[in-house]
Design goal:
Elements (H helix, E strand, L loop, with lengths): L9 H28 L4 H26 L2 E3 L6 H14 L5 E5 L6 E4 L7 E5 H6 L2 H17 L1 H30 L4 H44 L2 H15 L4 H7 L26 H17 L1
Parallel strand pairs: 2-4
Antiparallel strand pairs: 1-2, 3-4
Helix pairs in contact: 1-2, 1-6, 1-7, 2-6, 3-5, 5-7, 5-8, 6-7, 7-10, 8-10
Membrane topology: Multi-pass membrane protein
Pfam family, one: Peptidase_M48
Cofactor: Zn(2+)
């Protein structure tokens, strides 16, 4: 990883390594179980598993950007956004990522990409309308820290297994049943075991990614506050964004909610799951942490 001036976080690194180890082990076990259960369809299982993994790793940034409606913009098209990214990259001593804008009233931002060389940072038009320049820089510093810490790539790979559990199971069932043929006892067992294995894999991967996601958001807040030296600006942005989220139409929130793990702040709709399963820590936790950092910087 190219060194930057973002404060390193050993806790985040440890959690990322641990999550990737467990996810990788789970991935191997999952594919192994499918091969054992679908003996006649194992080439199809391996082919689909490998193809999906490669596609997710190499094209995840484009998939995420497309899903969130991001389009790359030039400095002439978005001078305020590019200017803020330029200043922060110079301050952090890191390569400038691609800059994108999403035409959405949901005030938010996200970063994606496998590494610093192909990273993309995106803000919504709703965010630019609502924030002051120093608040915008706080949000963008938060997103750039995700790129510097490489937790975007880890989250992308970690969340992949949940997707794989559903897709491979459907294709494996279809291919396996066609090869096995008939409605014998083996088919009945497969119909019970494969969805069960898929459900267990999905639940474990979901919980692991949620735990990592909540910690990485706190880590990004800390890194951004220390880099800019203005934790109060980031706190003000958080308060604005979270408060304005309640005024966004439910339809818009539901469109953004599937990408919560990537957003600066979660787009919760009325029927969201409990905070325990949230991809982000609570606003109170984030503000309390920023308040402690402000005190530390003031003493320094």
């Amino acid at each position: 990883m190219q060194a930057t001036r973002f404060a390193p976080d050993r806790g985040l690194t440890t959690r990322m390594v641990g999550t990737m180890f467990v996810i990788g082990l789970l991935y191997v076990v999952f594919v192994g179980v499918l091969i054992a259960l679908l003996r006649g369809a194992w080439p199809l299982v391996l082919l689909v598993a490998g193809a999906l993994f490669v596609a997710q790793f190499w094209f995840s940034d484009r998939i995420a950007a497309y899903g969130m409606g991001a389009r790359e913009v030039t400095p002439e098209q978005a001078p305020e956004l590019h200017g803020a990214v330029d200043r922060l990259c110079a301050l952090a001593d890191m390569p400038k990522p691609r800059v994108a804008l999403a035409d959405s009233d949901v005030p938010n931002a996200f970063a994606t990409g496998r590494n610093q060389r192909n990273a993309l940072v995106c803000a919504t038009t709703g965010l630019l309308r609502r924030l002051e320049p120093e608040e915008l820089e706080g949000v963008l510093a938060h997103e750039l820290s995700h790129v510097a810490h490489r937790d975007v790539a880890v989250m992308t790979i970690a969340s992949f297994l949940g997707v794989l559990a559903g897709v491979v199971t459907r294709i494996g069932l279809w291919g396996g049943f066609r090869r096995l043929g008939g409605r014998d006892s083996n088919t009945a067992v497969l119909m019970l075991l494969i969805p069960l294995v898929s459900a267990v894999v999905y639940v474990i991967s979901f919980l692991l990614t949620r735990l990592l996601s909540r910690y990485r958001e706190l880590s990004a807040d800390r890194a951004a506050a220390h880099l800019t030296g203005r934790p109060s600006a980031l706190a003000a942005a958080l308060t604005k964004v979270t408060g304005d989220m309640a005024r966004i139409p439910t339809t818009d929130l539901r469109k953004a909610e599937p990408f919560n793990a990537f957003w600066f702040a979660p787009a919760f709709s009325a029927d969201s799951l409990g905070r325990l399963l949230s991809s982000h820590p609570t606003l109170e936790q984030r503000l309390e942490q920023l308040g402690r950092i402000a005190v530390q910087l003031g003493r320094a």
